[in-house]
Every structure is written in C-alpha cells, then in structure tokens.
C-alpha cells in the first residue's frame, strides 16, 4: 500500500506538504509546481487518499463489493440542453441505463478536474463506471481507470487508450466533399471549430482534416479566406459567413462544408440576408442531421450520425465493463450516411 511517506520521498518534499496538498489545506501555501508534482506522483504511484477508495479497489479485485448501480456522466451541462447532437446521445445513454436498473449521475468537468473533489466525486458517490464526453486531462483518465472503468464518446477520445464509441469524422467529411465535387463544385469552403484550448486549433480537428484530404485528392485548392473557424459558436459562423460575403468582391465559394448542422444553419442565414440563393449561389452541407435541419429554408443536406445509438452503445459498453463481461478497452466506430436535401441538390453547370 502506497503511503504519504512514499509520495514525499518520490517528489522530494516533506510528508506534511504532501498531506496539505491532498487534503486541500489552504492554511499554508504550496506553490503550483510542487502541487502538480505531488498529484502526478499520486497518479503514478496509485495512492488512494481515503479508506473508502481503498475499499472500493479491494472490493473490485475480490468481486465482493455491494453494487450501487450508478454510472457517472461527465459533460458540459449546457451541451445536452442547447445542442440536439448531445441531447440525443444523452437520451440513448439514459434510456439504456434506466432500462437496466442503473442510475445516471451527472458530473461537471470542474468537479472531476479539481484534485480535492476528484476522489469524493468518484468514490464517495459510489460510481461504478464513468462516461466521458467533455474533455479531461489524460493523466486524470489514467488515474480514474485504476479504480473504475471508463468509456469515451466524441472526438476528444478517438485516439485515447480507453473504450471508445464514435464515428469516423474524417471519412464523413471526405464523403461530403466528394459528393459536392461530383455535382460540379470546385470552389469549396469550410466552416467548423477547432480543438484544444478555446477551440482555436483547427488543423488537428478531424472534420477539417477530412476536408483537407478530400480537397487534395480532388486536386482542388483551399483558400484561407474560405475557411471559417467558428470555435463552435453559431454567432461566429453567422458573422464569419457575413464577412466572407461582404469581402469577396463577388468571388464566393460555390459550396460550404460545415462541421455541424448548427454551424451550417447560422451561415445560411447570413447568405439569405445578403440576398443570395441556396444552393444556386452557395450550397451547404452539414453534419449531425439534427431535427431542425429538415425545416430550414431550404432543408439542409447533412450527414446522418447515429446519435441515439452512440449513447445506447456507450451505456451497454460501460455496463459490460462494470459487470466484468468485457475486460479490454473496445473501440466501436458506428456508420454514417449522407442525407441529400435541397441545400445542395443542384448540379453546377
């Protein structure tokens, strides 16, 4: 069993300093660099700071723990409320867990990333497994997995060494670009958001990478001014498209590939307000196939993502891992399909 003394020796600080950090004692200051080293040591050495946590690990190993039937869900609390994509995933998770007598416990990113709250959140609530859709630090995932199984959804976790339920974003956008090219489009722009801090890094975002790959394959050039990084905000999509139209001097892309339906719908409004026609002047293709896309004017072409099924499969996977029916982290990539509607229906001449 790892002790405070082991951590102190590993980091090169006193036992009292280690204790203050782990207990979140604010009476004496410990600089951030030392705090980070202590928490890294906690994760690397596998120290569990309270008896309940130790008992949970021991009980899992002995397969004799009393079941709580609780599964944690780490997501931005506003996502499921305002974004139909996440709402449908959540519904799939909830319906499946409820149907199997499990309870879904919502946990915020702040709760899971606060060292002082981490063990209380995971252990004291009696959570048996964790579903991740909001991004958390890799080292935290490794630490959590020492105690309970974890399943990741969405692109944050596509390259992580955990169980994953997802779809191939790069391939989806490649298919969209190929379809638009088959309709005669050669001037194709992109609207989407980045990843990492503040969603600014567009180059590593899978859908943008799919756009780049398909454009290269078709031997088509990408104009920087036709790429709009919205940081996943609808207002930025609207403003970016509006600015593109006003600064284009009449030379616009004939089609815009959008990384989500919400980004597409906002940009379409800017096109219509500038007295341009969809798809005659600018065609649009989105991703997600949310309900409101059917009722836009014109109806939005999109990529159908099996959102409810993603949630359902994530719930089934975490249950099987909790019940130790599945041991190794599995990766399930669900299929997608293009849904062609009026926003991209006309062939270019």
Description of the molecule:
The protein is α/β, with parallel strands linked by helices. It folds into 3 domains: 4-45, no CATH class; 64-167 and 308-335, 3-Layer(aba) Sandwich (Rossmann fold); 169-306 and 338-344, Response regulator (Rossmann fold, 3-Layer(aba) Sandwich). The protein has 14 helices and 12 strands. Mean pLDDT is 86; it is low at 51-59.
Note poorly predicted spans.
51-59
Name the helix and strand elements from N-terminus to C-terminus, one letter apiece.
HHHHEHHEHHEHEEHEHEHEHEEHEE
- In the CATH classification, which architecture of the largest domain applies? 3-Layer(aba) Sandwich
**Approximately how much beta-strand content do the residues carry?**
5-15%
CATH superfamily of the largest domain: Response regulator
Number of helices: 14
Largest sheet: 6 strands, parallel
Q: Could you tell me the CATH topology label of the largest domain.
A: Rossmann fold
Shape: elongated
Helicity level? 40-55%
Neighbour order of strands in the largest sheet:
2-1-3-4-5-11
Q: By helix and strand content, what is the structural category?
A: alpha/beta
Number of domains: 3
What's the total number of strands?
A: 12
Overall mean pLDDT = 86
Task: Report Rg.
Answer: 24 Å
List keywords for this structure.
349 residues; alpha/beta; Rossmann fold; 3 domains; six-stranded parallel sheet; four-stranded parallel sheet; 14 helices; 12 strands
């Amino acid at each position: 069993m790892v002790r405070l003394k082991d951590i102190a020796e590993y980091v090169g600080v006193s036992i009292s300093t280690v204790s203050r950090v782990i207990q979140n004692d604010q009476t004496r200051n410990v600089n951030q660099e030392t705090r980070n080293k202590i928490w890294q040591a906690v994760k690397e050495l596998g120290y569990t700071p309270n008896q309940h946590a130790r008992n949970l690990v021991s009980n899992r190993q002995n397969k004799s723990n009393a079941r709580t039937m609780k599964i944690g869900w780490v997501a931005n609390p506003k996502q499921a409320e305002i974004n139909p994509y996440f709402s449908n995933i959540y519904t799939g998770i909830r319906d499946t867990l409820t149907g199997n007598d499990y309870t879904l416990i919502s946990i915020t990113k702040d709760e899971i990333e606060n060292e002082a709250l981490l063990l209380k959140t995971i252990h004291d609530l009696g959570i048996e497994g964790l579903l991740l859709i909001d991004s958390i630090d890799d080292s935290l995932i490794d630490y959590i997995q020492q105690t309970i199984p974890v399943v990741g959804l969405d692109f944050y976790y596509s390259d992580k060494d955990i169980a994953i339920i997802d779809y191939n974003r790069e391939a989806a956008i490649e298919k969209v670009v190929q379809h638009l090219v088959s309709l005669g489009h050669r001037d194709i722009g992109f609207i989407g958001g980045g990843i990492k801090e503040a969603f600014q890094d567009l180059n590593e975002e899978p859908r943008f990478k799919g756009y780049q790959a398909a454009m290269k394959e078709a031997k088509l050039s990408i104009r920087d001014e036709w790429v709009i990084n919205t940081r996943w905000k609808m207002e930025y999509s609207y403003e970016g498209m509006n600015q593109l139209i006003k600064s284009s001097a009449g030379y616009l892309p004939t089609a815009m590939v959008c990384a989500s339906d919400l980004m597409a719908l906002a940009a379409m409004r800017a096109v219509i307000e500038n007295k341009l026609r969809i798809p005659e002047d600018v065609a649009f293709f989105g991703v997600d196939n949310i309900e409101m896309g059917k009722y836009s004017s014109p109806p939005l072409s999109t990529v159908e993502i099996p959102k409810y099924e993603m949630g359902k499969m994530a719930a089934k996977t975490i249950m099987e891992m909790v019940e130790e029916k599945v041991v190794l982290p599995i990766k399930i990539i669900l299929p997608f399909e293009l849904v062609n509607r009026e926003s991209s229906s006309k062939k270019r001449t």
